[in-house]
Predict the 3D structure of the following.
Amino acid sequence: MATVAGQEAFWRAVAPYAAAVHAAIPSLWPQTLLVQWGVETGYNPAGYPPYNLAGISPGGHLAAYRSYGDFVRAYIATISSPLYAAVRQAPDVVDQLYALGESPWAAGHYHGPGQRPGQTLVDVYLQHRGYLDSLAGTIPVSVGGITAAVPTWVGAAVVGIPLAALIIADLRRL
């Protein structure tokens, strides 16, 4: 098991690639990717095999990539499959992590005996939520069935204005 310092170093190293995937698929939260990739690689930024941060296995064989750019393209193609629609459509990080656990990606390794599929991922996220949210720069907030990305600085910078009022005002602009 990686130390907290090792986990944080891993997440800092791969955060730009999570941001690239999020830019291509805005419904996929960077935090979801950071947690999945950490668990998949054992927090090894080179991935296993090389540059495969997510354990992508086309045809049942672990793929090796020549660069993170190649990996990001392969990840986007894989997660865009209809098999992972529930992951992409889940409204927040926790729901996305559970959806990953219930997806074909998991193959049963995202939970322990008697746990809900995806529980291992959720536990990692909840344990490191503050760090992962700050690294991602946004947090998902749902109001009235609509989820919006709220910058992490909002909670610290805005004093005296209820956060829900800010979110509702932002959602009305959509």
